[in-house]
Structure to design on (748 residues):
């Protein structure tokens, strides 16, 4: 207890330095939190279309099991066979292509969804303004683009050499890597020089029918298609999107953590170096090295805890603010990420205590008697 | 003043070493983030430039190579080859597919080529010799432990890895190269397209000119005579892809790089603050000797600049080591640390961070009582 009191007193006497260290470490933590939040947020937006379309089962070319960056072709006659499968209430085909849409003088990566005239259920789920279903030569774009690109209803958007009139802005369809745009099935067919195929079939099950069982039935009934239930389809896409960034997140976590460990080590070391004389007195009073090591570890833990708290506070303030100020960035902080950060912080605190502990061990008790 | 600053640094070597390491790590973080952003653009440029050909033809209205759908009618190739000055037009096709087992799927761009546009640098194995052969990028090979001779199953069609190339990655994913024979086998066996004639089989055309033909004149001629395509030099198309990358990744990378500068500033500020705080008695003596605050502040600033000067090359070295480790482990990524403008920007940024950081403890120096000089430690 005496040692803890001494540590707290020491830290309090150097509050400016302690706060400075904590701030430095906090920003290093914040950097890691934001990098991960950017990847998670983007991955979440990438599955927004699948999540909100709420099809019980997704049917696509066999061998394909997700939507993001995938290419799938299903012969159009297979649509009839899907519709005839017992348990299918409704089957809505879409054509889909991953490409760039030019609007407001800028290019945006987008999922372009081609909708059938009766394909409203596969269209936008929430409209900010304008029409929810496009006609020939029309396009519906994410509402976020209207603000970022200074685009308004009636303006033109280009996909390859085709120009489309913007007739609607949909909510929650923007993402940095894959926004969702809606055009007619026929327009998209012309655009990609395709005929006789659809990309995905969104299947709604009759009431009481288990989607997994229905997926099995469709695969058995319709040759060379993959049928995947809603939950698994979302999981597949989310995983792919996340996997693309997971290595970078890991590397940046290591780099950020190393930096944090160095800052904490420096701060703890400075504190110990400054208090060498006091430490020598403590040693002459009979405190052994173990007690002093514990004191150093506690000091390191306190700085780390302070930094972590500060990082979380900054993240809570910065994340919503950033998303509002820079709408192109979607950030999502998960509790799993915060828990991981806390675990990493604990390890950092222990590692950072090694160097000052070494210094403590070298303090000569006799130096207490030197003036 | 310079000598005093240098003596202060040399006085406690462990402390100075740790200080330099911390500043060097802060600089390295900035450089790595900057290098990561630049790497994205360098890769985007490289994959266009590596395709070969003097002119790059895309579907009319399409102005990018990556992540953009382009579809050119097959007969266009003959029309292009009739243009004066054109020797040959080589088709290439690209479409995204997903490879890998459940839980570890990865997107790859399947590049289909005839004679031109294939893998630029095969580092292991052989080029494509048969329809089922595929050349994959080292990024994919490392990720899935693939080597020449292994199968590569795409849409239930089994290719065989004939070779491994390097430098064919962009936008967090890699390329795999197959021949048109391979594509047709894939389409037929997988029943991907009901009618191959309607399948978009040509995405781009790579044009080689007759010897002595004027590049810009041929470009104008193709544009005038073949309305289905837009014509670019590889440099122009690469610049468009880089611009697209900047529009997409610029904002998030800007936020991260700004954060790294704030870290750097805080690290330097903290170090100088601790140093000043530990040397208050020395400052008291200087004040008692008649040194003005501006003199002492200049000394602190010089010490900071010396530390940054030493830490910067170390930071570059450290960043380069980390970048090499990232590229060796995950060749999908390129961390372009040794980028001239980036280095200059970071060097200037580091000095500004140092300047701002050394301002933080000024108040403490100003408040230091000269009487401290006469107190026993």
């Amino acid at each position: 207890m005496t040692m803890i009191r001494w540590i707290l007193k020491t830290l309090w006497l150097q509050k400016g330095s302690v706060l400075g260290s904590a701030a430095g470490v906090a920003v290093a933590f914040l950097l890691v939190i934001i990098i991960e939040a950017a990847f998670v947020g983007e991955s979440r937006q990438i599955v927004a279309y699948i999540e909100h379309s709420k099809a019980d089962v997704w049917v696509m070319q066999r061998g394909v099991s997700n939507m993001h960056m995938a290419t799938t072709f299903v012969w159009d006659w297979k649509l009839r066979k899907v519709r005839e499968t017992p348990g299918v209430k409704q089957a809505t085909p879409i054509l889909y292509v991953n490409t760039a849409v030019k609007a407001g003088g800028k290019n945006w990566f987008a999922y372009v969804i081609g909708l059938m005239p009766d394909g409203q259920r596969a269209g936008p789920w929430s409209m900010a303004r304008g029409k929810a279903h496009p006609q020939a030569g029309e396009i519906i774009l994410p509402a976020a683009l209207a603000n970022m690109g200074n685009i308004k209803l009636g303006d033109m958007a280009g996909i390859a050499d085709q120009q489309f009139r913007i007739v609607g802005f949909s909510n929650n369809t923007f993402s940095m890597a894959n926004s969702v745009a809606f055009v007619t099935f026929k327009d998209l067919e012309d655009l990609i020089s395709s005929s006789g195929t659809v990309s995905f079939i969104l299947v709604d099950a009759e009431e009481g029918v288990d989607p997994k069982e229905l997926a099995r039935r469709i695969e058995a009934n319709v040759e060379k298609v993959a049928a995947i239930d809603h939950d698994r389809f979302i999981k597949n896409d989310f995983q792919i999107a996340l996997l693309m960034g997971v290595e970078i997140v890991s590397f940046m976590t290591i780099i950020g953590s190393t930096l944090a460990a160095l800052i904490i080590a420096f701060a703890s070391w400075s504190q110990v170096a400054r208090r060498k004389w006091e430490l020598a007195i403590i040693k002459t009073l009979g405190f052994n090295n173990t007690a002093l090591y514990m004191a150093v570890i506690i000091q390191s833990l306190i700085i780390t805890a302070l930094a972590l708290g500060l990082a979380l506070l900054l993240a809570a303030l910065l994340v919503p603010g950033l998303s509002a100020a820079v709408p192109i960035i979607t950030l999502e902080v998960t509790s799993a990420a915060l828990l991981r950060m806390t675990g990493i912080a604990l390890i950092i605190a222990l590692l950072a205590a090694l160097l000052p502990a070494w210094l403590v061990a070298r303090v000569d008790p006799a130096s207490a008697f030197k003036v | 003043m310079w000598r005093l600053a240098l003596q202060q640094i040399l006085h406690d070597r462990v402390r100075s070493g740790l200080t330099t390491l911390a500043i060097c790590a802060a600089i390295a973080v900035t450089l790595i983030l900057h290098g990561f952003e630049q790497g994205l653009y360098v890769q985007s440029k490289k994959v266009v430039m590596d395709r070969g050909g003097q002119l790059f033809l895309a579907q009319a209205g399409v102005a990018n190579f990556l992540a953009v759908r382009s579809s050119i009618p097959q007969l266009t190739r003959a029309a292009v080859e009739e243009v004066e000055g054109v020797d040959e037009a080589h088709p290439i096709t690209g479409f995204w597919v997903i490879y890998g087992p459940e839980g570890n799927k990865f997107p790859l761009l399947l590049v289909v080529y005839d004679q031109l546009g294939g893998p630029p640098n095969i580092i292991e194995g052989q080029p494509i010799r048969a329809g089922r052969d595929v050349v994959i990028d080292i990024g994919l090979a490392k990720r899935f432990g693939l080597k020449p001779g292994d199968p590569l199953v795409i849409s239930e069609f089994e290719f065989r890895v004939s070779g491994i190339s390097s430098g064919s990655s962009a936008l967090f994913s890699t390329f795999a190269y197959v021949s048109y024979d391979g594509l047709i086998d894939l389409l037929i066996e997988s029943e991907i397209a009901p009618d191959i004639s309607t399948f978009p089989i040509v995405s781009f055309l790579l044009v080689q000119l007759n010897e002595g033909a004027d590049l810009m004149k041929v470009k104008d001629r193709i544009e005038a005579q073949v309305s289905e395509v837009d014509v670019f030099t590889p440099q122009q198309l690469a610049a468009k892809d880089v611009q697209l990358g900047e529009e997409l990744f610029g904002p998030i990378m800007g936020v991260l790089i700004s954060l790294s500068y704030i870290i750097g500033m805080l690290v330097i500020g903290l170090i100088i603050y601790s140093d000043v705080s530990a040397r208050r008695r020395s400052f008291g003596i200087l004040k008692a000797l008649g040194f003005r605050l501006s003199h002492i502040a200049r000394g602190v600033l010089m010490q900071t600049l010396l530390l940054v000067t030493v830490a910067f090359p170390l930071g570059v070295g450290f960043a380069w080591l980390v970048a090499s480790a990232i590229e060796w482990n995950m060749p999908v990524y390129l961390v372009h640390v040794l980028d001239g403008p980036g280095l200059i920007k970071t060097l200037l940024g580091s000095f500004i961070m140092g300047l701002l950081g050394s301002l933080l403890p000024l108040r403490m120096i100003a408040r230091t009582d000269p009487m401290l000089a006469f107190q026993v430690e």
User: Anything to note?
Assistant: The first helix of chain B runs from residue 2 to 11. Residues 2-45+242-374 of chain B form one domain. The longest strand of chain B covers residues 86-99.
